[in-house]
Amino acid sequence: MTSSPDRVNLRPLSPATRLARALAPWARRLILWAFAIWCLFPIYWLATMSLKRQVDAMARTPRFWFQPIWDNYLAVIKAGDIWNYFGSSLIVALATTAVALALGIPTAYVLARYRFRGNSDFGFWILSTRMTPPVAMLIPFFVLYVRTGLMDTYPGLVIAHVAINLSIVVWLMKGFFEDLPSELEEAAFMDGATYFQAFRQICLPVALPGIAAVAILSFLFSWNEFLFSLVLTNEIRTVPVGLYSFVGYQQVRWGELSASAVLMLVPVLAFVFIFQKQLVRGLTMGATK
Questions:
Q1: For burial by CB atoms within 10 Å, which of 100, 113, 173, 186 has the most?
Q2: Cα-Cα-Cα-Cα dihedral sign, residues 245, 247, 250, 253
Q3: Long-range CB contacts (< 8 A, 24+ apart) of 89-95?
Q4: ∠ CA(42), CA(79), CA(94), 5° rounding?
Q5: CA 11 to centroid of chain Cα atoms
């Protein structure tokens, strides 16, 4: 005697359920659009401020309709200081990224693959450097730099930025390496590879998306850093410190300040847009098994 198949519930859905299912995609889209507007509005406001006259920028009631002008951009470009700020930020950000990756990637690999006495303590110590507020480390850095002659130098500023970003590089890369299957290295060891060869020829190529993501984040953090660049330098001015020069004692030149910020924001947005696939792929490595 064969058993009867399970009966399928064919009762029609209620009107409320059908309406909820029909509106669910639109509700999700509405939430996403609202979030996108919330995130993009500051960029829109910055761009419009760069095209306003001082009287429009200082209006008590925000003016969304105004006569745009390009005088602010012309004044900033003719001054020429903005390109010095751009060059200084580019040098410091690229050097910081290179040094942070050179130090952080091998450290992360060792913490992820090998167990030794003090492994967790050493990893937590690296992470704790990010927990400390940067202003708490500012005075020791200042005193040390004055005594060693690193004040107002590119190497000194790079060292400070590396100290801030190194923990991020180590802990992100540590997660990437932990998600890589150890069988890859075991196969390399069976073929006679050394530990360094397995790391360089096997793990690094596989972890390239993660390395790209960490490099982008390190570059952006260094590019946007303000406090150390303000205190530890005088002649060398990065973009955030250079923008601060438009803030006077009694007046803020909103038009020129916004125009300079837009000019410095364009390369960063272009950089992120070009490498967005690597960034998203790297940050989602290990999210699924």
A1: 100
A2: positive
A3: 89/223, 89/238, 89/239, 89/264, 91/154, 92/154, 92/157, 92/158, 92/161, 92/222, 92/229, 92/238, 93/161, 93/219, 93/222, 93/223, 94/219, 95/154, 95/158
A4: 65
A5: 52
Contacts (Cβ under 8 Å, ≥6 apart) of 105? 169, 173, 204, 211
Q: 258 pLDDT exceeds 60?
A: yes
Q: All domains of the chain, ordered by start, with CATH? A: 80-283 (1.10.3720.10)
pTM of the model: 0.78
Instruction: Return the structure tokens found at 256.
Output: 């020129």
| 32, two tokens | 């996403």
Whose tokens are 């519930």? That residue is 9
With CA atoms as reference, report the closest residue to 88 among 281, 230, 279, 276.
Answer: 230
Q: Dump pLDDT digits (tens) for 86-117.
A: 889 999 999 999 999 999 999 988 888 887 77
Q: Which residues contact 48 (CB under 8 A, 6 or more apart)?
A: 64, 66
Question: Above 90 in pLDDT, residue 158?
Answer: yes
Give the pLDDT confidence score for residue 1 in this predicted structure: 47
39 contacts: CB under 8 Å, gap ≥ 6: none
What SS3 class is residue 263?
helix
The tokens for 15 are 């009107």
Runs of H (alpha helix) within 114-153: 119-131, 134-148
Residue type, 155: P
3 secondary structure, DSSP code: P
Q: Which residues contact 144 (CB under 8 A, 6 or more apart)?
A: 150
Q: Would you state the pLDDT for residue 250?
A: 65
